[in-house]
Amino acid sequence: MAAPDFDQAVEQYHLALSEFMTGNTEPMQKQFSHQDGVCLANPYGPAVRGWKQVVETMKRAASHYRDGGAKSFENIVTYVTPELAFIVEVERATARVGGRQDITSIALRVTTIFRPEDGAWKVIHRHADPITSVQQIESVIQT
Q: Which domain holds residue 101?
């Protein structure tokens, strides 16, 4: 069986991210694998594993956003094999965040890993953090 079109999968993933910035997780849930090995590490908490925990974490994260959308995706690297693919990007979006009334800019450094499942590329891991510029060495020290 030929691998599904990865570029199309990434485009759908980006559209789902735009919806996520409105608080809507449904399109993003469709992009993720529903198998137990799925993993999510977002900027708001520890990494979680398993479909149930991923959905709960995704919904909690999306609840912080409203009236937003994705603005751009700066691709750092894309790597695709028939069994596995990943992208590393800087995602830029705007939204009302938390209790703020103003629309603000958001930037995340993101690594997303995909695998084909039932004829479609599905996200099996997403790691996002706010580090998009050089950090001081002390930034890794926990007190």
A: 6-130
Q: Which two tokens stand for residue 52?
A: 């149930």
d(CA 49, CA 35): 10
The CATH number of the domain where 25 resides is what? Answer: 3.10.450.50
**Residue 37: beta bridge partners?**
none
Other C-beta atoms within 10 Å of 85: how many?
19
Q: Structurally, how many domains does the chain consist of?
A: 1
Exposed, middle or buried, 18 (CB in 10 Å: 0-12/13-18/19+)? middle
CA contacts within 13 A on the Cβ side of 44: 13
34-60 confidence digits (pLDDT tens): 998 999 999 988 999 999 999 999 999
Per-residue tokens: 40: 């999510």
Mean pLDDT, to the nearest integer, of 86-115? 96
pLDDT in tens, 3-20: 569 999 999 999 999 999
